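Researcher: Batch entry, complex prediction.
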Amino acid sequence: MHEMSLAEGMLAIVEDTARKNGATRVASVCLELGALAHVETEALRFCFDAVARGGPAAGARLDVVTTPGLAWCMPCGDRVPLARLGDACPVCGSYQLTVVAGEEMRVKEIEIA
Amino acid sequence: MCTTCGCGHGEAKVEGVPVPAADAPGAGWHRHDDGSLHADHDHDAHHGHDPAHEHKHKHEHGLGAAAGPRGAHAPGISATRAVQIEEDILAQNNVYAARNRRLFADRGVFALNLVSSPGSGKTTLLVKSIEALRGRVAVAVIEGDQQTSLDADRIRGTGAPAVQINTGKGCHLDAHMVGHALEQVQPADGSLLLIENVGNLVCPAAFDLGEAHKVVILSVTEGEDKPLKYPDMFHAADLLLVNKVDLLPYVTFDVGRAIEYARRVRPGLEVMLVSATSGEGFPAWTAWLEAGVRAARAARDHDIGALRERVLQLEARIAAQPAGAPVR
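Model: Structure tokens for the complex:
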């Protein structure tokens, strides 16, 4: 499962930021995960918990904000909500869609002490 | 979930030699005030950087100002404060991917990331492609598997150079591993580099290796509904190769439906039907590969031309300066 690699990436960002801001402890991490992102949220929680052990982010609370999936629908000429890759346009039923939002996996902010 | 899954955690090997752990921040890469990540040594990545800025190794930059302290500050209890980051989780991988991509651009190398389920026929397809391009295009291969060098050995049997990455417990190749493999395989100028990813239709989708395109391979002995069941991978690809078409008379695979499903998750996806055993579809496939190599070479030549012009401009400016004056 690749969530371990993602968790390591998250940890590097979090610990780097904490260190640069002179903090010794990270209380919480706010993540922005798009509804269409290639990640299983619970697996990511598990992995982050595992890799953060023994470091400044050990035990940090993980807050996940899910951003909605959005796609540009060619026939509609407008942005439409997209719940899952492979779904049709909820308005006109076409598959001519270009994803414009919802694939993000971002560390939004952290709380440090 | 397996508690010992050490995916990508220092177990990866290139030709049997452990890959050093991905550089920790401050060791191999650093972040600038605008939040952008740069690998150390990558001076050319500093576009729009103040030219007077001194660049030392491992220098620290502060991030944007933190928000004020959160909540009431009670004596004896340390208040926490929020620090905005807004950084892509895959930022570190993307730095390595950008480095690989720059290497490919500098050498005019056309690099492809081949992804599929295990058993789709990727390696056989590679062997046949190398043979079909012999004498026309130089090919090098980076192989990815959990264990063994069986695939790299098969490739080397064709005479093409190949480097094996063993991920150990890992389920996908990442740009850092590929960067190390590139040190050994050293693709020639104007050549084709084929990266055969770990057989896995899920995880590799998220990881940019620096390639020009992801090519997804689906064989007719698999289900035609795979593009709907594994949308992330088909969504990430620019070309779908439907392989083993010589077996179509013996299976119930509906080619039209597979393509329709694939284009639902990736509108405009280019599709080719091939058979690595019969050679069907190979003229179109090799033509596509050769066109990619030509484009990579042309882009490199264009870059060289642009650089040459810039050097001439700067030389003219230097020549126009009065002796002893600093160059502006």
